[in-house]
Amino acid sequence: MAEDLIDNKDIYFPSYLGTNDKLITLLNRASQTLCDWFSKTEKNGPFPLDESFKFIMPTEDGNSEEDLFSEIESLLNNSFNPVHPGSLAHLDPPPLIFSILGDLIAAGLNNNLLAYELSPCVTLLEESLCKWFAKKIGFNDFSGGIAASGGTLSNLNALIAARYNAGLSTNPNSVLLVSEDAHSSFIKCIRVMGLDTKNLVKIKTDNQGRMDINDLRKSLDKCSIENKKIFAIVATLGTTVRGAIDPIKEISEICKQRDIWLHIDGSIGGIFAITSIPIEGLNNINQANSITINPQKIIGITKTSSLLLVSNMSTLENTFNTGLPYISSKENIINRGEIGIQGSRPAEVIKLWLGLRFLGLNGIENILKSSIKRKDFFIKNISKNKFDIFSGPLHIVSFLPKKLEPKDSDAWTQTKVNELIKKNFMLSRPKFKDKYFLRVVMGNYNTEESHIEELLKILEA
Ligand SMILES: Cc1ncc(COP(=O)(O)O)c(C=O)c1O
After folding, report:
1. Neighbour order of strands in the sheet with 387-391
2. Looking at residues 432-460, what average pLDDT do you find?
3. What digits encode the pLDDT tens for the residues 109-122?
4. What's the 257 CA to ligand 1 centre distance in angstroms?
5. Residue 428 in contact with ligand 1 by CB distance below 6 A
């Protein structure tokens, strides 16, 4: 008699035969546990970590369901809660309901975006959704894109493609130009690309936090005198500290004249480009070669969800194609592990697609407009006599008391952050131009005007 290969048939994996009653019970219990946690938000506050909380590591034998559910509860009760209306520190809004479902489906599906044969339907979904986004921002029929786990990786994909397509992949004199307020991920990108930090040329910003075009021109001339080869210029569409938008039209004209790849880091503001919301400075983005859009940062698609859109898909194919020898290919379908640096990748696109289908364009606009409204309300009501305010067209505000000495900004912001968290408001304290600031990010749909009024009272006390 053939020996049975499976010792204990019913517990580890979904059954391919039965009705999976056990799994259904567990999923129901997990949903209940999660929803109970959401309901305890007010009581727990945005950041309830108990410093003595300890994880138990795996033991010889597996643990009981009861143990595991109790540990899940402890984990939840000690976690940052983006649903709390006082969670205003970062670009981490509450999770969109249909994205939560999308994550569950993607986990159960366990398909792999490495290749069509491991994710036939989801490969086509990702391809179509990237094309939909690309068309929405005004790219033509050659365009498309690739998802990645976060804005940093989308930016890296773009820069590797830019350098490869400029024929500069092995050139140690190749440089990247970004504004001094660009995100720190570009420092990582430069390192990962085997370059020195001096290959990252920083362009000054004006008093609104936008790239200074005169300084850009000067730097371009300096680069050519020093025989440095520019493989890309990055325009930021929404800087991290104050939400400024670089002058995309002027930068794109310079890039066209000099045949330089323009990458737009739209991790924060790019999503506005698929709506009709008027945002000052958000124009001409279809003149770029590539743009990062990171829907996890404002509209609540669960992490991670980031897209790199390119005006011409062949640039990604040229850069990343290896032939993938252990995977079969199908005519006219690109294995998506061959157009970006990630190999195996989960079906994250499902939660983006479901989230967007659920919201529709009106829902997306509603969320984005509400972020801007909250920012406007905050700025309208904060005392201009007491604070210097740094903001732009998006939903981010950094501020400091007037006349505070730079050396005192560290202690003042730390004290305020500690005081605020005790009153269930979580703000961040970015270091920017040698000073610490307090920053509010108004992307939390649960934050109402009454919460902002309460926050302002504490700040101005
Ligand atoms: C402007 C900008 N670009 C890129 C990133 C990096 O995105 P991620 O954290 O998803 O890698 C951030 C993160 O806040 C950002 O603000």
Report:
1. 387-391, 396-401, 438-441
2. 97
3. 999 999 999 999 99
4. 29
5. no
**Contact yes or no for 93/455 (Cβ under 8 A):** no
Q: Is the CB of 151 under 6 A from ligand 1?
A: yes
Question: How confident is the model at residue 3, as a pLDDT?
Answer: 62
Among 381, 382, 387, smallest CA distance to 403 is for 387
Q: How far is the CA of 183 from the centre of ligand 1 (A)?
A: 6
87 lines ligand 1 (CB under 6 A): no
Coil, strand or helix at 83: coil
- Does the beta carbon of 305 lie inside 6 Å of ligand 1? no
Q: Which protein residue's CA is at the shortest distance from atom 5 of ligand 1?
A: 151
Pairing relationship of beta strands 290-293 and 262-266 according to DSSP bridges: parallel
Kindly compute the dihedral angle of the four CA atoms of residues 87, 90, 96, 97, in this order, to the nearest 10 degrees. -40
CB 389 within 8 A of CB 382: yes
379 touches 389 (CB < 8 A): yes
CATH number attached to the domain at 103-355 = 3.40.640.10
CB of 270 shorter than 6 A to ligand 1: no
What is the model's pLDDT at position 330? 86
pLDDT digits (tens, 9 = 90+) for 107-156: 999 999 999 999 999 999 999 999 999 999 999 999 999 999 999 999 99
Calculate how far, in angstroms, residue 339's C-alpha sits from the geometric centre of ligand 1: 21
The position carrying tokens 């952050």 is 417
DSSP 199: G
3-state SS, 409-442, equals HHHHHHHHHHHHHHCCCECECCEECCEECEEEEC
Question: Which strand (E) or helix (H) includes residue 388?
Answer: strand 387-391
Protein residue with least CA distance to atom 8, ligand 1: 151
Do residues 123 and 113 lie in contact, with contact meaning Cβ atoms separated by under 8 Å? yes
Alpha-carbon dihedral of residues 412, 414, 418, 420, nearest 10 degrees? 60
Q: In angstroms, what is the span from residue 29 Cα to ligand 1's centroid?
A: 34
Atom of ligand 1 nearest to the CA of 236: 1
The amino acid at 96: L
Full-prediction pTM beyond 0.90?
yes
Phi, psi torsion values for 93, nearest 5 degrees? -75, 175
